[in-house]
Design brief:
By secondary structure, the chain is an alpha/beta fold. The chain is 36% helix and 26% strand. The protein starts with a strand and ends with a helix. The mean pLDDT is 90.
């Protein structure tokens, strides 16, 4: 579904991403793990051309390397950004409508689908986004991405700042979403991410230093020592 080859991102003279190559297959959750500053967010932003990059990106059989961000979204690749970035002064329903800008004619059908997945949001349909809890804001951010009717979802730190109980709920949602679309996941909670993933990549200083099936990475001594708390 997604193929990335020799992706590079520079900020001035600083190389944030160096020759990254990765794949996401249909039906899979793939996770990128690494320390803060390893280049994980830059990788996702480069894939959807939010930042300048070099390299090749193919999505669903189409070269999207040089396409504008809105064109990439129209083709079915959606990114839920770090920090959620919902519209705090709009209601839950208005936030969802903003996510449907490419599919406004299917708004009612898509909205029903999102509220079926997130019944807690349906209960707060007219509540301002900024008054929701952190977990509810994350659900809204994912729901807003789903309003674009994506073929694939990229999630950047979905558990950031959430209570442990809510983190469990969010990961249950991600696992459920796998039934509908492949997912590329960046997550600070490496153990939880690898546990629900099919494949994983380890990023260090902008480069991929290790890749394997997620279960194998969970049992890797080096990965356990660096990212899984021993």
């Amino acid at each position: 579904m997604l193929k990335v080859n020799k992706l590079n991102v520079k900020y001035g003279v600083i190389s944030a991403v160096r020759d990254i190559s990765l794949e996401v297959k249909k039906g899979d959750i793939v996770t990128l793990i690494g320390a803060n500053g390893a280049g994980k967010t830059s990788t996702l932003n480069a894939i959807v051309n939010v930042v300048k990059k070099s390299g090749y990106v193919e999505f669903d059989g189409v070269d999207i390397s040089k396409k504008a961000t809105h064109e990439i979204i129209q083709k079915g690749l959606s990114l839920v950004p770090e920090g959620r970035k919902i519209f705090i002064n709009l209601t839950v329903d208005e936030n969802l409508k903003m996510g449907a800008f490419n599919n406004i004619e299917n708004f009612e059908k898509l909205r029903t689908h999102v509220y079926d997945k997130f019944p807690r949001l349906k209960q707060k349909i007219n509540q301002m986004g900024g008054t929701l809890s952190g977990g509810e804001q994350q659900m809204l951010a994912i729901g807003r991405a789903l309003m674009g009717n994506p073929k694939m979802l990229m999630l950047d730190e979905p558990s950031l700042g959430l209570a442990p109980k809510i983190i469990g709920e969010v990961f249950e949602i991600i696992t459920e979403l796998k039934k509908d679309m492949p997912i590329l996941l960046i997550e600070q909670n490496a153990f939880a991410a690898l546990k629900i993933s099919d494949y994983g990549y380890v990023l260090e200083n902008g480069s991929i230093t290790l890749e394997d099936k997620a279960q194998n990475l969970l049992g890797n001594d080096e990965v356990r020592a660096k990212y899984l708390g021993g």
